Amino acid sequence: MRGENVTRVSAFILVGFPTAPGLQYVLFLLFLVMYLFVLVENLAIILTIWSSNSLHRPMYYFLGIMSTLEIWYVSVTIPKMLDGFLLQQKCISFTGYMTQLYFFSSLVCTECVLLASMAYDRYVAICHPLRYAVIMSTGLCVQLVGFSFASGFTISMIKVYFISSATFCGSNILNHFFCDISPILKLACTDFSTAELVDFILAFVILVFPLVATVLSYAHIVLAILHIPSATGHWRAFSTCASPLTVVTVFYTALIFMYVRPQAIDSWSSNKLISVLYTVLTPILNHLIYCLRNKEFKEAWRKAVGLGQTPL
Q1: What CATH number did the domain enclosing 60 receive?
Q2: How confident is residue 90, by pLDDT bands cut at 50, 70 and 90?
Q3: Alpha carbons 153 and 155: distance in angstroms, whole number
Q4: How far apart are alpha carbons 54 and 38 in whole angstroms?
Q5: Residue 1, domain member (yes or no)
Q6: In terms of residue numbers, what domain contains 294?
Q7: Does some domain include residue 179?
Q8: Count of domains in the chain?
Q9: pLDDT tens-digit map of 110-162
Q10: What rounded mean pLDDT belongs to the chain?
């Protein structure tokens, strides 16, 4: 194709959710409410952890970082979607697409590693309780968080570099509502095999390795719980890791379902509905799972808003 005149794509059209104009306003209000809920929910978690001395522990430190991630996560995708609903501004430049793709991918990759770090924290708490304070020091927590961000943003940078180096031509219409990797793969009019291979290898590294570490951590936790003699001990140990395990299950189920078959995004885009669950509802559910099932956090939150006192 090098000898041919090729019109390169300099902007993309995100189809979003094509409906009647009236429904566009309804969808705008619906997603605006969900967006604001995610912001308020996660800000409340961050402020509660920051203001409550009883929550100044590694488990809640990681939870606060995860809440920060979720705020950035929805802020990368939803504002552009809201603009499309309200003002019908569905066009996005090539640079804008790659920028949103980079930050979205970076945050997803970072969360994968962060969830593995949280699983390791619960493993140490259950399997090595007497050494927990020594092992899970402030320095190690900072290193784990730093590694999560460094690995996530570095891997995403490499992926987006190879994707952006391809030539895109022909149709610039993407049947999606945010800038994801899957839709753009179809628009490349040059050899894209190297970019696809790099994307596959890096996705494998950032998804599978943290997942294996997470599964191994919880497998050791389950074995340790089974060796606890009393039923009360069983329940107390299980309650400390049930919420993180549920969040991991929800996150990876949505992630695998979305990206195990990238080519599945078709003209009717049933995957767009799954993407809504993944990009909007999952951030809402994650912290509701944590907070509603965590008695210690609920007591700290009531004290923070003046609804009760944390018992001594």
Answers
A1: 1.20.1070.10
A2: confident
A3: 6
A4: 24
A5: no
A6: 11-304
A7: yes
A8: 1
A9: 999 999 999 999 899 888 988 999 999 999 999 999 999 999 999 999 988 88
A10: 80
Q: At what angle do helices 58-87 and 282-292 cross, to 10 degrees?
A: 150
- Please say if the pLDDT value at position 171 is more than 80: no
Question: Among candidates 306, 307, 304, 311, which has minimal Cα distance to 46?
Answer: 304
pLDDT value of position 264: 42
Q: Residue 29 pLDDT > 80, yes or no?
A: yes
- Is 274 within a domain? yes
Q: Convert the pLDDT of each residue in 240-279 to its tens digit.
A: 677 777 778 777 877 776 665 544 444 445 566 667 777 7
Give the span between the Cα atoms of 2 and 202, in whole angstroms: 29
